[in-house]
């Protein structure tokens, strides 16, 4: 299964978007998890 160039671009774009989403949401998730641990 060999992907064409536009398909590779779509795969790489998906990886970039998902990586950015994780990087932006991870600090908030860690902060709220810390709050939950401290408040209970």
Summarize the structure.
By secondary structure, the chain is mainly α. It has one helix at 5-39.
SSE layout and pairings?
Blueprint: H1 5-39
Protein architecture, described:
- It is a single chain.
- With 40 residues, the protein is mainly alpha-helical.
- It has one helix spanning 5-39.
- 88% of the residues lie in helices and 0% in strands.
- The radius of gyration is 17 Å and the shape is rod-shaped.
- Its main location: membrane.
- This is Molybdenum ABC transporter permease.
Q: What features would you highlight for this structure?
A:
transmembrane helix, 1 helix, Molybdenum ABC transporter permease, single chain, membrane, mainly alpha, MetI-like_sf, transmembrane, about 40 residues, about 0% strand, rod-shaped
Largest sheet data: none
Let me know the number of strands: 0
- Quick check: average pLDDT? 96
Q: What is the string of SSEs from the N terminus onward?
A: H
Task: Provide the structure class.
Answer: mainly alpha
Distance between the termini: 52 Å
| Rg, alpha carbons | 17 Å
- Which percent bin holds the helix content? over 70%
Which outline best applies?
A: rod-shaped
Low-confidence stretches: none
Percent strand equals under 5%
Query: In DSSP terms, counting alpha (H) and pi (I) runs of 4 or more, how many helices?
Result: 1
């Amino acid at each position: 299964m060999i992907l064409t160039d536009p398909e590779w671009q779509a795969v790489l774009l998906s990886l970039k978007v998902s990586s950015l989403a994780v990087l932006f949401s991870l600090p908030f998730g860690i902060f709220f998890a810390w709050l939950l641990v401290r408040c209970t």
